[in-house]
Write a structure and sequence with these properties.
heterodimer; A: alpha+beta; Rossmann fold; OB fold (Dihydrolipoamide Acetyltransferase, E2P); 2 domains; six-stranded mixed β-sheet; five-stranded antiparallel β-sheet; 9 helices; 21 strands; about 20% helix; B: mainly alpha; MetI-like fold; about 80% helix
Chain lengths: ~375, ~220
């Protein structure tokens, strides 16, 4: 039931992209606005037709310009969540969800609204719902069609940061119920890293890099388009205790990390996003530093960049973190693979919006 | 009080609204959503009756409906009667001069629907006719209702074209507007006043109904 996409064209922008998404997998199309990622999503849904395209689901073509097949959007079983949700303003939440069903099924609509945490909101009109609630209705409506592919077009960009973090957590939890391929369009690398299994970086209509999220996020060349400062890893951790001085202690495979209070009960699984340019390396365990979070590890490999910087991959436990340091520093430290180093994380470098609760129970995708 | 004329006017207005309702929806929607060459020309043609003096439109209709015109002859050979100075001729004239009132507000109503909402309807699996019925019409409804109310009221009040195409045959083409003029000419101010008052009452009633309807729709959309 994989989704395979190939699209080529010259207008409105030169476009040449192909990718494949497996059932249950979430692929993030990442790029700046104007890179063509939303256009690609519209091509999958049938709202836009490029000169040359082939989109197949389970091997069945939705569009194949080479054999002149082009199904209209209403014949493609795709669930699309629009950037501004595009809810039907004259219908209640439940009616919106039922509008996407072949035969209206109130019980099923209620089940879907429960699934997106909208208990008791079924009778409300979109205007009576908050932005986050509207987004949940849009997700429930997209699922009501029993889609063969779920398409999310910047679904978190129209809500405030606090709501966004809550919605991330919900989407991560919802993933367990999704058996179809999911495509997420976003310009936010942090968001892609939190949510996606695979990433495809799009720049000016061209596919720059496609691979697992961990691989793409560790690839400085791939992230060049998005800005090297986005280079980061996700470190799994466990919330261990809340301390009286306003910090929370997180246990990682390579020792404790202290961050400003993270919501949640002790035992909650968490992922930390650690930006490569916020990591300092030291050969000896430093003393008398204000930074509290120091992880011991070994240098796994060193990847030279195009500029004066290098990316050092440091193995901590069974995980890797990245440090972006200058070439000059690497030479002075005589860093080589296999060397023992200490990675210093500035306490505040573990920003609040880079801490997310992982889905429980833990699945291999997390 | 000429009850026959009032009944005729209401009958004419009802026929006009009944025939123009689907035209208003389909043509209004077409002009709202489609982009094509010559669209401006079609829009201008639809608007033309609004700026044309009614007597000018009436004159051309009289000439093209006449006994010696192709349209008039075809009509006569099919229905065995003349098109001019008949109720049927009046209905056709009424359809034409009401076109701008019936199409414009409906077109505005459809244009007000965000493109994303229409795309969402398609992405929810709705074929075009179902999207029209479940999403577009409920949202464009205030525009369509306005169009029909304007058409109805405008038909009741039209004078110039009716006189040119229909003449003033009682029970066939003598509408209430003509009857009022007729009574004034005969210095029967009492009858003219009564009939005018009835027209005012009907107009007020229609406007009130529209406002009530659209405020209800407003709440529904809210």
């Amino acid at each position: 039931m994989a989704l395979e996409v190939m699209a080529q064209g010259e207008t409105p922008i030169p476009l040449n992209v192909s990718f494949r998404v497996e059932p249950g997998e979430l692929l993030a199309l990442v790029g700046h606005s104007g890179s063509g990622k939303t256009t690609l999503l519209r091509c999958i849904a049938g709202l836009w037709t490029p000169p040359r395209a082939r989109v197949t689901v389970e091997g069945t073509p939705w569009i194949d310009t080479s054999i002149k097949v082009n199904l209209p959007p209403y014949k493609r079983r795709a669930g699309l969540v629009f950037q501004n949700y595009a809810l039907f303003p004259h219908m209640s939440a439940a009616q919106n969800v039922m509008a996407a069903m072949e035969h209206s099924d109130a019980a099923e609509a209620e089940r879907l609204l429960d699934l997106v945490n909208l208990q008791g909101m079924a009778h409300r009109k979109p205007a009576q719902l908050s932005g986050g609630q509207q987004q949940r209705v849009a997700v429930a409506r997209a699922l009501a069609r029993k889609p063969q592919a779920l398409l999310l077009d910047e679904p978190f960009s129209a809500v405030d940061r606090a709501t966004r973090e809550k919605l991330y957590t919900e989407i991560i939890a919802l993933r367990r119920h999704l058996k179809m391929p999911v495509v997420l369009v976003t310009h936010d690398v942090n968001e892609a890293q939190l949510l996606a299994d695979r990433m495809a970086v799009i720049e000016k209509g061209q596919l720059v890099r496609e691979g697992t999220t961990a691989d793409v996020m560790a690839d400085a060349a791939a992230l060049h388009a998005m800005g090297i400062r986005e280079l980061a890893v996700m470190l799994p951790a466990r919330l261990s205790e809340h301390l009286p001085d306003g910090l929370s202690r997180l246990d990682t495979p390579s020792g404790p990390i202290f961050v400003p209070t993270v919501e949640g009960a002790p035992g909650t699984r968490i992922r930390l996003r650690i930006l490569a340019h916020e990591v300092i390396l030291s050969r000896v365990r430093p003393e008398g530093l204000s930074a509290q979070n120091i992880l011991a590890g070994t240098v796994a490999r060193i990847v030279p960049g195009s500029g004066p910087g290098m990316i050092v991959h440091v193995a901590v436990g069974d995980q890797e973190i990245l440090a972006r340091i200058t070439r000059r520093a690497a030479e002075q430290m005589r860093l080589h693979p296999g060397d023992n180093v200490h990675a210093i994380l500035k306490s505040m470098s573990v920003a609040r919006d880079h801490v997310t609760r992982a889905a429980a129970p833990e699945s291999p995708r997390d | 009080m000429d009850w026959t004329a009032l009944e005729l006017s209401l009958r004419l207005a009802a026929w006009t609204v009944a025939i123009l309702l689907p035209v208003s929806i389909l043509l209004g929607r077409f002009l709202a959503f489609r982009q094509f060459r010559g669209k401006a020309l079609i829009e201008a043609l639809v608007m033309l009756p609004l700026v044309l003096p009614p007597t000018v439109l009436g004159f051309y209709l009289l000439v093209s409906f006449g006994r010696n015109s192709p349209i008039g002859q075809t009509w006569a050979s099919i229905f065995g009667q003349q098109l001019v100075f008949s109720f049927e001729g009046l209905v056709i004239a009424s359809l034409l001069f009401n076109l701008p009132f019936a199409v414009q507000p409906a077109q505005r109503g459809f244009q007000a629907i965000p493109a994303e909402v229409r795309e969402a309807a398609a992405c929810c699996g709705m074929p075009p006719w179902r999207a029209l019925w479940k999403v577009e019409l409920p949202l464009a409804w205030p525009g369509v209702v306005t169009a029909m109310v304007l058409t109805f009221a405008h038909t009741l009040g039209e004078f110039g074209i009716v006189l040119m195409v229909g003449g003033s045959i009682p029970g066939e083409t003598k509408t209430i507007a003509i009857a009022i003029y007729d009574r004034v000419q005969a210095f029967d101010s009492r009858s003219a006043a009564t009939m005018s008052a009835v027209l005012v009452a009907i107009s007020l009633f229609t406007i009130a109904v529209t406002f009530a309807l659209s405020s209800r729709i407003g709440r529904r959309l809210g």
